[in-house]
Amino acid sequence: MKQSPIVVVGTGQCGFKAIETLRHSGYHDQLIFIGDEQYIPYQRPPLSKAFLRGDIAEHSMKLTSPVFFDDFEIETLFSTKVTSMDANAHTIYLDNGERLHYSKLLLALGSRPRTLDIPGASLEGVHFLRTLDDAKFLSAELNSGDHTILIIGGGYTGLEVAASLRIRGHNITLIESSDRILSRVVSPSVSYFFEDLHKHHGVRILKCTIPTCFLGDQRISAVELSSGEIIECDTILVCIGNVPEVGLAISAGLEVGDGIRVNTFCQTSATDVFAAGDCASFPSWRYGRNIRLESVQNAIDQGKAASNAMLGKPTHYDPLPWFWSNQYNVRLQIAGLSNGYDRMEIEKGKHPGSFSVQYFRAGQMICTDSINNTRAYMQARQSLELSLQYRTERNISSD
Fold it and tell me: What is the pTM of this model?
């Protein structure tokens, strides 16, 4: 009897790394790759940076070519959505009416932008930035002259978009609900550095305020803030974070928390169902809790780990997270998570404006931020990697 295929749902970097790993690791049976976007897998980081600035073309973001799927005999179902699944029957159901049986299933569903439930949220000119279509639509709309743009959210994406659009000559106002930008991920010193950087480039930043109403007839014309101020604008970009895609998992009865819950081998609570990438919440010995990471590094590494687990070669997945952000001529590099730090040290770099911040908890370094200071970043990251390896091996041996 023919074995059912391995099915990978999600055609982002995580899903692509998974199918690539499966084929390169010797899996030669039927492999099906499903995603709701029309495109072959592409890089998402350039969407808020080089692509939005017009510095790179669409084709240069592709992770592969159509020939790859033919050469490795991978069946692709693009522009296709999985509407439901029956984990007990090892079956998924598609929006075209078909159903597929699987031997192993990987959910690499990613995340979606968090929305705003306020009056006027459906007006024309209100944008989100998650997919290539989002970026193409926004970029095309902004090609006609200078625009007055309001960006909601002072996290990585909001700041990267602010920099990209300011470089294109648009008028930018950015609002942040907290008392500082990047407040959830970096120390005040790094926040203030980037606030000064954006103000120097002409971005207006308003803190401790949120939008309460979008104003306009068919198209956005202004925003009313909780402070009472009304800001005129013709374009809005909502960048208030993402939420994991867990609807399919919930409907199938899988365990869900902040993401689809998996064990250290990327296995969900259902037999033969795995999850990885932005949608997956996994146990971290290093941080003593379940974590969910939204990063290219995690998408690639966890996609590979999940594939190996599906092939019967599981390894404990507990990585050192790392991230980066490019804004104007500044590169921010982060390794680790700074949550819960009780001490920090700031070290000046060799070049003007360069510095690093190291975060400690109970005497142990847990994270580093570096501003245009790559050498110091790599040294700190290596120290964190060695510490992680020791702690992981110690925890595994005690199990």
Answer: 0.93
* Domain 6-112+243-310 CATH (choose: 3.40.50.720, 1.20.120.910, 3.50.50.60, 1.10.10.10): 3.50.50.60
One digit per residue, pLDDT tens: the chain, 399 residues? 578 999 999 999 999 999 999 999 999 999 999 999 999 999 999 999 999 999 999 999 999 999 999 999 999 999 999 999 999 999 999 999 999 999 999 999 999 999 999 999 999 999 999 999 999 999 999 988 889 999 999 999 999 999 999 999 999 999 999 999 999 999 999 999 999 999 999 999 999 999 999 999 999 999 999 999 999 999 999 999 999 999 999 999 999 999 999 999 999 999 999 999 999 999 998 888 999 999 999 999 999 999 999 999 999 999 999 999 999 999 999 999 998 899 999 999 888 889 999 999 999 999 999 999 999 999 999 999 887 655 555 555 555
Domain 329-398 carries which CATH code? 3.30.390.30
Question: Is 37 within 8 Å of 31 (Cβ atoms)?
Answer: no
Q: Which two tokens stand for residue 244?
A: 């994991």
Buried b (16+ CB within 10 A) or exposed e, 27-53: beebbbbbbbbeebbbbbbbbbbbbbb
